[in-house]
Amino acid sequence: MGPTVLGVPQEPGFNIRQRGLRFHKMIKGKLTYLRPLEKADLPVLIKGLNAEEVMWHLGPHFPFTERQAEVWLERLNASEEGKIFAICDKKGRVVGEVSLDRIHHRNRQAELVIALFDPADWGHGYGSDALRTLLRFLFEDMNFHRVQLLVHEDNERAIRIYEKLGFVREGRLRDENFRGGRYTATLLMAVLAGEFKGYSVTGRSRPGVE
Ligand SMILES: CC(C)(COP(=O)(O)OP(=O)(O)OC[C@H]1O[C@@H](n2cnc3c(N)ncnc32)[C@H](O)[C@@H]1OP(=O)(O)O)[C@@H](O)C(=O)NCCC(=O)NCCS
Questions:
Q1: Is the CB of 130 within 6 Å of ligand 1?
Q2: Are 149 and 141 in contact (CB under 8 A)?
Q3: pTM, whole model, 2 decimals?
């Protein structure tokens, strides 16, 4: 018998690697798509999160080892409170990650972190597109009510994309972050379903229907 997927025979020439990738293109944006981040992505994730410029914006940490990242991913994937997505460009290259933590089903809310791994990819629209795509999914399909995040006050590029999509500044945490020998402030920002500025204009059609 030829190859099968979930017991279903596949046509000749079927390539399980390509088919796997297609199954994974679950949440599509214009410039990016989001898919679950897998163990195989960990080397890219570790390199990205340990990069000096990325670490500066996320907050310094002891460099991740592969084992630590593996444990972290397993714990996150096993929990109902967390989700992590790889941000891929249209060619399938992993350019970053966006994660949800503290998902609370009764309050319909979560905390979000986004990072593009290579500074060369910053400023090309990937971050805005990935965030808009995830928020559309959360608000239009998953019925979330609120998404919040923390951002360093001097991270103007990140604040710009958050405000563009409807996040508002809810609080300023003084001296919250120590970095480069001094304390800086952190902003608490959040967007409610009614404030999100990235809704699909006409609603999305059924997948596969143009
Ligand atoms: C923050 C991040 C996700 C943004 O993604 P991105 O792809 O670089 O951003 P985009 O290209 O989609 O949009 C950047 C916007 O900021 C603007 N911008 C760029 N530099 C800026 C600056 N120094 N000050 C203000 N705005 C700036 C751009 O003009 C653009 O706005 P526009 O679409 O209105 O022109 C990405 O830069 C990143 O991962 N940075 C490192 C990690 C990080 O800071 N994560 C956030 C932690 S809270």
A1: no
A2: no
A3: 0.88
Q: What is the pLDDT of residues 71-83, one digit of tens each?
A: 989 988 889 999 9
Name 192's Cβ contacts closer than 8 Å, sequence gap at least 6.
145, 146
Q: What are phi and psi of 162, to 5 degrees?
A: -65, -45
Ligand 1, pocket-test mutation among 121, 149, 154, 160, most atoms within 8 A of CB: 160
Read off the amino acid at residue 203: G
In this predicted model, what pLDDT tens digit does every residue of 2-53 receive, in sequence order? 555 445 454 454 444 444 444 556 899 999 999 999 999 999 999 999 999 9
> What domains sit in the chain, N to C, each tagged with a CATH number?
17-195 (3.40.630.30)
Q: DSSP for 112-144?
A: EEEEES-GGGTTSSHHHHHHHHHHHIIIIIS--
